[in-house]
């Protein structure tokens, strides 16, 4: 039953005509579609939607059923997430964009984002731009599967500016971080969590922005290209993604 229901939703989601008709019925503008489709095509699709209990005839017009209202919301969500995923793939064509299942279905929350890349005359441009955003923030959370060579200097600068700094690290990164003398000095506002497994993503999320970096399919991390967004929905997405990984990580500091 579940598989057939999912198949039906995907079948409708893949059909642009179905979406257009459902939205026209929602707006009470079904008559406008007579100019766009042959009468036989429109009749066939409407009958299909009636049999699926997505629409019903009420006096002189069609209306969405409760199931139809829900399906339409799901189809719209599916299209938005798929569009955002293709947008990501266009910007990161050789990368592994791997997210927990629940977050794949929230990709539309990324909203508008920019991709910051290194330049021949400014190789560290992505790193510099993200650091500038961090230093203007109050709370900073990050997933750190790699460590920049200037970590000690950057850490001291960041921890002196922010109210809270939380990071999730891999075992390899933690072995490096715990060696630094400065770690114990800032335990009041510095927290470190050890990831249960490699998260396959780097992210920084603050009260004002969200940034993410991805691994290439070859296995190496792309230091030279980062996604950045100041969209409120993107920062919410980033905070929730951080919390997802924090819940399955162990606090070590």
TrEMBL record:
It comes from the Archaea. Residues 125-247 form the Methanogenesis regulatory protein FilR1 middle domain. Coiled coil: none annotated. This is Methanogenesis regulatory protein FilR1 middle domain-containing protein. Gene3D superfamilies: Winged helix-like DNA-binding domain superfamily/Winged helix DNA-binding domain (1.10.10.10).
């Amino acid at each position: 039953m579940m598989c057939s229901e999912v198949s039906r939703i995907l079948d409708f989601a893949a059909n642009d005509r179905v979406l257009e008709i459902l939205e026209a019925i929602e707006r009470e503008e079904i008559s406008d579609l007579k100019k766009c489709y042959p009468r036989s095509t429109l009749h066939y699709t409407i009958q299909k939607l009636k049999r699926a209990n997505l629409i019903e005839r009420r006096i002189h017009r069609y209306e969405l059923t409760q199931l139809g209202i829900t399906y339409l919301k799901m189809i719209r969500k599916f299209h938005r997430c798929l569009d955002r995923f293709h947008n990501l793939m266009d910007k990161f064509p050789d990368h592994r964009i791997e997210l927990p299942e629940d977050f794949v279905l929230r990709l539309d929350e990324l909203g508008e984002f920019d991709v910051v890349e290194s330049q021949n005359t400014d190789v560290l441009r992505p790193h510099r731009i993200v650091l500038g955003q961090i230093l203007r923030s109050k709370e900073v959370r990050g997933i750190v599967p790699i460590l920049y060579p200037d970590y000690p200097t950057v850490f001291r600068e960041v921890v002196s500016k922010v109210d809270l700094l939380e990071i999730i690290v891999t075992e390899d990164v933690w072995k490096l971080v715990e060696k630094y003398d400065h770690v114990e000095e800032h335990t009041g506002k510095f927290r470190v969590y050890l990831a249960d497994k490699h998260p396959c993503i780097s992210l920084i999320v603050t009260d004002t922005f969200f940034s993410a970096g991805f691994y290439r399919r070859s296995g190496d991390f792309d230091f030279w290209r980062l996604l950045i967004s100041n969209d409120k929905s993107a920062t919410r997405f980033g905070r929730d993604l951080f919390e997802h990984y924090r819940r399955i990580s162990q606090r070590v500091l």
